[in-house]
Specification:
By secondary structure, the protein is mainly alpha-helical. The chain contains 20 helices and seven strands. A hairpin with a 2-residue loop joins strand 1 and strand 2.
Amino acid sequence: MSDRKPVVERRIVRRSLGSPALFALVYSTVAAGLYFSLGAVAGRALGLTPAVFLFAALFFVLCVMTYVEGASLHQERAGATVFARYAFNELWSFVAGWAILLDFVILIAITSHSATNYLGAFWNELRSGVLESVVAAGIVIFVAVVNVIGVTAGRLRRFFALTVVDLAVQALVIVLGIVLVLSFTRVFDGVQLGTMPPWSDVVFALAIAAAAVSTGLDASSGLAGEVAIGRRGLRRLVGARAATVLVVYVGISLVALSAVPVTGGATELGSRYIDAPLVAVVRGYEPGAWVSDALRYLVGGVGALVLIAGANASMLGLSRLAYSLATNRQIPSAVGRLHPRRATPFVVIALAAVMATSLAVPSDLDFLVAIYAFGAMLALTIAHASVVVSRYREPERDRPYRMPLNVGRLPVPAALGALVSFALWIGVLVTHAEARWVGLVWMSLGLVLYVTYRTTEGKPLLRRVTIPPAALTRERERAEYGSILVPLLGTSLDDDIVQTAGRLAGVERPDEGEKGAVIEALWIFQIPMSLPLDAALPDQRLQEARRALARAKAVGEEYEGVEVATATVRSRRAGQAIVEEARRRGVEAIVLGAEPPSRIRGGALLGGRGGPLDNYVSDVIRHVIDKAPCRVILTAPPADSEPRGPAEPAPDSR
């Protein structure tokens, strides 16, 4: 009998999805990438198209390993933006998220436009004119409505059936292409490195292909917290993704350049058929034969469905990313507001639908894929670099998946991926002027938005600031009190006072995107007549005040939408100081702590004995009640409680 203990596989999560659903979600976007990118890549790379897609497939392997390790390390909504948050800071997290938001919007526009053109296999009028624009806009609206209603786990599982059908169709196209049209001579004939195609076109084609094969990685990594899969399952998933992309992309590109070859330094895949290149490929399988006609309808129908599924997956990824950005105060929470019934970020979905429709209507696919490559390469650079840095910043953190090929702590695949994606991003900047300016303007606007939003809210630019998810769902209502004055006692009763004020101020203002209620925490130094008001105070008293005020700020700001301002005041009489500060600050209420119970009849100061007093209203409280310009609220402990000691020191950080 073996002494070895059975291996217990650690489950990364215990949620509702399995690896088939995750594979289906990723593959639906990866397959969509092939349907729309083949023409754009072939138009630039010409006979080098198979080599470009081979490079892209190998790059995809690096990206998959990076995203799987990063997503298993931090299982939160969103991908690269989460990796960058823990590896770097909130600013870099926002840069990654903003670039991916651009990509999601562009991808929805591309897939909707391309789906319309694949439907043109059934009715040629759909490939141009007003009808093309109307159908593309209709697809965007359909996807938006589906995501506002909510994409359930059951619907994601149904993607798996479409994935199986598409894989079968792609395999059929490749096998028939090999039998009917494959010719390596036709594919590579006329290739002259540096001349046909030029190096600038090759670099641009590499960026498009790399971006296309990586489509959906960020959206799928955002589901890390909802996928029940273990370590071995992750390794199999990485292998399945990589093998599928390698076979499908390279195989399709070989038969594509055989069916629609390069003639005169150009191929019709990149011009006449750029919007639906796979339909053109199967048209070349014995033109006029029943095989060609059947494949045309089959590829047109399945291609349109896959592209619509890709648009849906992109909108799902966008909504989850926007939710993450909103709850982390990187975009205004009003943008990420959730539907009151569906709990979906309907505002950002609507905005994305409007933007995607406006981009899909002009029908300039080359322009759209260039912008998409800009955002994808920037986000992938940050993702790879984040996983590298995380190895050093979080070396002891459990990694359910750890990519192979490491030198010490350095993950070589992630480091290589960072270098390649950054080089391709620079290539897009250099080779495509429109993508360069649109991309840089988009990123600049995002940075201005981020800095302005964080600055006006008084929040740090580099540190994480979150709001509760419930703040995105509740209706905006007026707080019962907009400003409350809270004089502190320096005892543990201070927590009760501040919590009472927090409930009154914060319960009606969950949205921290608005200016919330303010608690004015006040410490009063009562100076005896024997000293001048500006006399130096002992360090012990100063430290006591600082601890009490810091504690009040930490407790009060636990309430949603509440800001705690702290101050100290010197006065001869505490009651008078409270009234004067309330009047000067224009507060709407004062929350005071009544005297703690005393077991000395007549009060401890009088030396009396007996049961606890019935009246805890001191001269200070009575003065405030009589003279205050606003409502006064008292909070007191139970009569049978023990007297409380000094409050605990405030923590250094929340």
